[in-house]
Specification:
This protein is α/β, with parallel strands linked by helices and 399 residues long. α1 packs across α8. Helices cover 26% and strands 25% of the residues. The chain starts with a strand and ends in a 5-residue tail after the last helix. The longest helix has 19 residues. It is globular and about 65 Å long. The chain folds into two domains: 179 residues, 3-Layer(bba) Sandwich (FAD/NAD(P)-binding domain); 146 residues, FAD/NAD(P)-binding domain (3-Layer(bba) Sandwich).
């Protein structure tokens, strides 16, 4: 295998694969390699539906080899050390690769270890998370076992997370399941979130609050999960008041759905590509690195202040491709990313609010109707259309 590539891509997820495919469609002669250690590729947006008992987990995974674009070299290793001054990437396996241009798309890191006791009890004792392929089916098991008088907690951390709406989606599915059994208000549902609001954009927040009220969900803001004792069924939260003073509270649970704190991968955080907060330091419109002009990045690990979603990647990818080719050709960069993000907010079975917005939190809706209203058509889009689009169009660079 060659050790030098014209374009080296770190990450074989949605971002890395779709960008590679689009580059080859635009310019078939490019010499491209993808560094990706995993032999499995996941469609993670469906895991909320898996947790709600309405999607088959096995339909969310395929062999990584099946999605690598033809003509791209797959380096089945893990990036470990980045030396952008030398145009070099060193892998965990000890191999060195060089490049003319680098695309960083490593995705986001789930920091389960930052919640004390979580790793030891995850997947048992009523502790689950849809952020894991292994545990999403357990979420559905727990929802079905809930009984009147019991408590179900749904958490959201203080860090950026991939799909910011996911912590709430599974809560609404659980609440709707209980409603259909006539148990609204009989099972205690708590939304313990480190955030200060239900959603950052008022148009959608108003409608979500209506669902919170309908399902009789108790919201606890500024509650950041710091520890879990699975045996005792206790969750400990750091609570911050309006003056910024913190104290700890313990909530008992029968079921708890945990969203772990998240960050850029450790090898990114310790690299010269990272800003002070640990994210890849790129221009938020061009996706070009602010210090190393032959480095571009997209997806969840970048510093761009948009929602970390697959929908954002879909809008970022053509911008990055355009700008990278401009850079190769010695032209001024012409692509511009406006911060588009989308959160398909499931609020019950057959009911979905499709939130779409830009950097300025302005709704940028696709359809000619009010997308803040829960609709079955948007549920169908989420459950049936988008998975097909992902496997057959997005990863092939044609959507």
């Amino acid at each position: 295998m060659s050790q030098h590539f014209q374009i080296l891509i770190i990450g074989g997820g949605n971002a890395g694969i779709s960008v590679a495919a689009q580059l080859l469609l635009k310019r078939p002669g490019l010499q491209i390699a993808i560094i990706e250690p995993s032999d499995r590729h996941y469609y993670q947006p469906a895991w909320s539906l898996v947790g709600g008992g309405t999607f088959d987990i096995h339909k969310t995974v395929r062999a990584e080899s099946s999605v690598i674009p033809q003509g791209v070299t797959w380096i089945k290793e893990a990036a470990e050390t980045l030396e952008p001054e030398k145009n070099t990437v060193i892998t965990r396996e000890g191999n060195t690769y060089t490049y003319d241009q680098l695309i960083a798309a490593p995705g986001i890191q789930l920091n389960w270890h930052l919640v004390k006791g979580l790793k030891e009890t995850l997947g048992r004792n009523g502790v689950t998370s849809n952020y894991s392929f292994d545990y999403a089916p357990y979420t559905w098991e727990l929802i079905q076992k809930l009984q009147p008088g019991q408590t179900a907690i749904f958490t959201s951390p203080g860090t950026p997370v991939k799909c910011g709406g996911a912590p709430q989606k599974i809560m609404y599915l659980a609440a709707d399941y209980l409603k259909r059994k006539g148990w609204t208000g009989k099972v205690n549902i708590l939304f313990d979130t480190a955030g200060g609001v239900i959603f950052g954009i008022k148009k959608y927040a108003v409608e979500l609050q209506k669902k919170v009220d309908e399902y009789q969900i108790k919201t606890n803001f500024k509650h950041d999960l710091i520890a879990i004792d699975g045996e005792k069924k206790e969750a400990t939260f750091k609570v911050t008041d309006a003056e910024g003073v913190s104290h700890e509270v313990v909530h008992q649970f029968d079921m708890i759905h945990v969203v772990p704190p998240q960050s850029a991968p450790d090898f990114i955080r310790k690299s010269p590509l990272a800003n002070e907060a640990g994210w890849i330091d790129v221009d938020k419109h061009t996706l070009q690195h602010n210090k190393y002009p032959n480095v571009f990045a997209l997806g969840d690990a970048t510093s761009t202040p948009n929602a970390k979603t697959g929908a954002a990647v879909r809008k970022q990818a053509p911008v990055l491709v355009k700008n990278l080719l401009d850079f190769i050709d010695g032209k001024q960069l012409s692509g511009n990313y406006n911060g588009y993000g989308s959160c398909p907010l499931i609020v019950g079975y057959g009911k979905l609010i499709l939130a779409e917005f830009d950097y300025d939190n302005n709704p940028t809706e696709t359809f000619p109707f009010d997308q803040a209203k829960p609709r079955w058509s948007m549920w169908a889009l989420k459950k049936y259309v988008l998975p097909w689009l992902y496997w057959h169009k997005i990863l092939k660079g044609t959507a």
